[in-house]
Design a protein that fits this description.
Elements (H helix, E strand, L loop, with lengths): L2 H47 L1 H19 L1 H11 L9 H25 L5 H28 L7 H16 L21
Helix pairs in contact: 2-4, 2-5, 4-5, 4-6, 5-6
């Protein structure tokens, strides 16, 4: 075997080893991305199931409409949007503001993560479209008021996520996979 042949074979072996290592690295990166997606979605689930978040949703659902109808609450929100000193208001308005901000900011962050591909949009809206859209419908008057009061870009990523969620629900009225048999279920209690 000549020296030239040995050098050629050694070069081919080196190229092959580098190519195999590159393919292995790509496969490993794919697995890491999948692991990161799973971790991100589990973290989202923990946040949306947290006591603070669920309490904020209950507060928002039970009183935001009445608060928005009150000029005192609206004056408080205007001051916040315009970065002015806030007027003295009833404690329930401060609690409402904090609840609404917690809910809105949570969905704003999720919208940002979805838009930038940090979490998979499809998986996110498949799991949480109802919750996102419900919160958006509850908050849209608050968002419109806030934008008019001086925050024209307020919660745009939340809005983006709500649009994705609405589109998902229109395209997928049920999350159950097509073509898969279902168990027969029968309600035994009267719906009074």
């Amino acid at each position: 075997m000549t020296l030239e042949l040995i050098n050629t074979v050694a070069g081919l072996i080196t190229v092959t080893i580098v190519a195999v290592a590159a393919v292995a690295a790509l496969v490993q990166m794919r697995h890491l991305r999948a692991g990161n997606q799973i971790a991100a979605l589990l973290s989202v689930g923990e946040k949306l199931d947290s006591r603070d978040f669920t309490d904020a949703v209950v507060t928002m659902n039970s009183g935001l409409e009445a608060a928005l109808a009150d000029p005192e609450f609206r004056a408080y929100e205007i001051a916040i949007r315009r970065r002015l000193p806030t007027p003295a208001v009833d404690k329930r308005f401060i609690e409402m503001h904090h609840a609404v901000v917690l809910v809105g900011n949570t969905f704003e962050l999720l919208g940002l993560l979805a838009k930038n591909g940090i979490v998979d949009k499809t998986m996110l809206v498949d799991q949480y479209c109802g919750l996102v859209l419900g919160a958006w419908k509850r908050l849209r008057e608050f968002v419109a008021f806030g934008r008019a009061a001086g925050d024209p870009n307020g919660w745009e990523y939340f809005e983006y996520l709500a649009v994705l969620s609405e589109d998902w629900l229109k395209a997928h009225p049920t999350s159950y996979p097509k073509g898969v048999r279902r168990f027969p279920l029968q309600n035994v209690w009267p719906l009074e």
